[in-house]
Specification:
By secondary structure, the protein is α+β, with helices and mostly antiparallel strands. Among the domains are: 137-217; 237-348 and 383-395, hypothetical protein PF0899 fold, CATH 3.30.2320. It has helices spanning 5-8, 29-34, 93-98, 109-129, 157-162, 227-230, 262-276, 287-299, and strands spanning 38-40, 46-53, 74-80, 83-92, 136-139, 143-146, 148-150, 168-172, 181-190, 195-198, 203-205, 211-214, 251-254, 282-285, 306-308, 314-320, 323-329, 338-341, 346-356, 365-366, 372-381, 384-385, 392-395.
């Protein structure tokens, strides 16, 4: 009988290829477009003076006519606090010893965990920048005493991608994010059915009343402000209320499930220019809207030009008056949306850049009563605009 692989199994070695090959998408396009606009701040709050209105005391008169009634410039202070974004690792001493060289492991424990948590924090930061500012990732539908949580059928695919197996979540209201469940692990995600399965006891949720949050990050004022809150035609932002100061809004257009086209883009860019005197330089869309625009160009038999973005990204070239704007897709932009942005008017007030806590001189700290060490990554920042009407959004675009 011939010696085959089955018979030789006891004498054969396994050949391990070097390194660990990542299967995780760590691309953060939005974060790359704004992180170079950081402004260092200190103190309890960052405060920005907004020039909202002109002096109305101007106008033509006859030779003997009375001069215009004196007016004044209107300035209002926008203010908010810097948010804290953290990442934490914990490694046992035994694992550190076991993963000390290539002989025992594919990667070094400390290096792998520190690089990994940095990528993960960047990824979550990107989600926050595209978010709603209150930590809401998805909205629950009615769930009756189950660990399979029903989400609204209108939940964007972008939100479903943000809910990952292994992620710890809270479920509740914005005012009380842990009303239904606290620190539950997602064990399964069904994108097409708009469902997630969580660990622990069964729960019940009410449609449009309960929401999914990253554990510990729900509620107002915890996460950074996001595009879905900043670029709106309504809603108070940085303690400035557009019901009092109607100039403090972005242009918003409802496409009513219509297809994306040049007229839609040009109208939005024109309205932003008319309101703000600024021409946008970036369109961020969902993947579906981006594909739809590519199909539109194909049908029009047009070959698009490209423009370079920050961070090594490329985008389709869209002419915005005298300024070239880039149109591209971003994984965290909700389905059917296209944000028209002036990146010169977006900035990040920050107290510190990404760093591992080392105020006591050590990045790794011993965990009390354990043979283990821990480290905490932190960044103190917010996401803001100094001219809200320099941006716009088109909602409900057909994909």
């Amino acid at each position: 009988m011939a010696l085959d692989l089955s018979g030789a199994a006891g004498a054969l070695k396994k050949f391990y290829l070097p390194g660990a090959r990542s299967q995780i998408n760590n691309k953060c396009l939005l974060l790359n477009q704004v992180q170079r606009g950081n402004e260092h701040v200190e103190g309890a709050e960052w405060v920005l003076s907004l020039h909202l209105r002109r002096n109305s005391g101007v106008g033509a008169r006859t030779e003997t006519g009375t001069s215009p009634t004196a007016g004044k410039q209107l300035h209002v202070q926008a203010r908010d606090t810097v948010k804290e974004i953290r990442g934490r690792i914990e490694i046992t001493g035994k694992v550190i010893k076991a993963m000390a060289s290539n002989k025992g492991s594919f990667v070094r424990a400390i290096d792998s965990e520190m690089k990994g948590v940095t990528n993960d924090a960047y990824r979550d930061m990107n989600r926050q920048l595209a978010g709603t500012g209150n930590g809401v990732i998805a909205t629950c539908d009615d769930t009756s005493s189950s660990t399979t949580i029903e989400l609204l059928t209108t939940t964007p695919k972008s939100a479903m991608r943000q809910l990952e197996v292994g992620m710890l979540v809270d479920i509740g209201t914005v005012a009380s994010p842990t009303t239904v469940a606290s620190e539950r692990e997602i064990t399964s995600v069904n994108v097409s059915a708009r469902q997630i399965v969580i660990s622990g006891a069964a729960v019940s949720t009410t449609a449009s009343t309960h929401f999914i949050f990253r554990s510990g990050a729900g509620g107002s004022g915890v996460e950074t402000h996001g595009l879905q809150e900043i670029v709106k035609a309504s809603g108070s932002l940085f303690n400035v209320d557009p019901s009092t100061y109607p100039e403090w809004v972005s242009y918003a257009k409802d496409a009513a499930s219509g297809p994306i086209n040049d007229t839609m883009l040009e109208e939005t860019m024109d309205e932003i220019d008319l309101a703000s005197g600024k021409e946008i330089d970036l369109w961020l869309t969902s993947y579906g809207v981006y594909r739809a625009y590519g199909d539109y160009l194909s049908k029009m038999k047009r070959s698009p030009n490209t423009v370079d973005l920050k961070g090594g990204f490329k985008a389709l070239s869209i002419l915005s008056g005298s300024r070239e704007a880039g149109l591209t897709r971003e994984r965290d932009i909700p389905d059917g949306k296209a944000f028209a942005l002036n990146t010169d008017c977006l900035f990040a007030p920050e107290m510190s850049d990404w760093h591992f806590m080392d105020e006591d001189g050590a990045v790794l700290s011993r965990v009390a009563n354990k043979r283990a060490y821990e480290a905490t990554l932190v960044k103190d920042m917010d996401f803001a605009t100094d001219q809200r009407n320099a941006h716009g959004v088109v909602n409900s675009i057909a994909e």
